[in-house]
Amino acid sequence: MKEILITNDDGFEAAGLLALKEALSELDGVNVTIVAPSSEKSACAHSLTLTRPLRFIKLDDGFFKLDDATPSDCVYLALHALYNNKPDLVISGINHGANLVEDITYSGTCGSAMEGVLQGIRSIAFSQFYENYSLNELGFEL
């Protein structure tokens, strides 16, 4: 069984995160755990919270929001509090926005994937650029 940790910087209710969850849940031999910020945290880069305690809130089996956390907090704390063994992959996204060029240095989506890499786990960040449309209008699918 492959273990995948998913996070994002758009928050636990973001359409891109939910689309990714739905697509991966259809795969055989894959167990998905989601730990996402309780609210949108775009442009927080690779920041970690050091000045206050953070709290996991379980939403469903394998689906948690981390109260007032950054995406990198989500990866770091999930790895140290929820897993006995490291997951096989960290996926961050699907971001609401392009994350191109210098955006990458500010991106919480990219920052959380970098945290996965620093923890020794293969990681990838996904972003989606679209203009003047909502995800629902685009028929967002993977």
TrEMBL record:
E.C. code: 3.1.3.5
Keywords, in A-Z order: Cytoplasm, Hydrolase, Metal-binding, Nucleotide-binding
Domain Survival protein SurE-like phosphatase/nucleotidase: 4-131
Protein name (record): 5'-nucleotidase
Annotated catalysed reactions: a ribonucleoside 5'-phosphate + H2O = a ribonucleoside + phosphate
Molecular function GO labels: 3'-nucleotidase activity; 5'-nucleotidase activity; exopolyphosphatase activity; metal ion binding; nucleotide binding
Record-linked NCBIfam families: surE (TIGR00087)
Listed SUPFAM superfamilies: SurE-like (SSF64167)
Keyword Flavoprotein: no
Taxonomic lineage from the root: Bacteria, Pseudomonadati, Campylobacterota, Epsilonproteobacteria, Campylobacterales
Gene3D superfamilies, sorted: Survival protein SurE-like phosphatase/nucleotidase (3.40.1210.10)
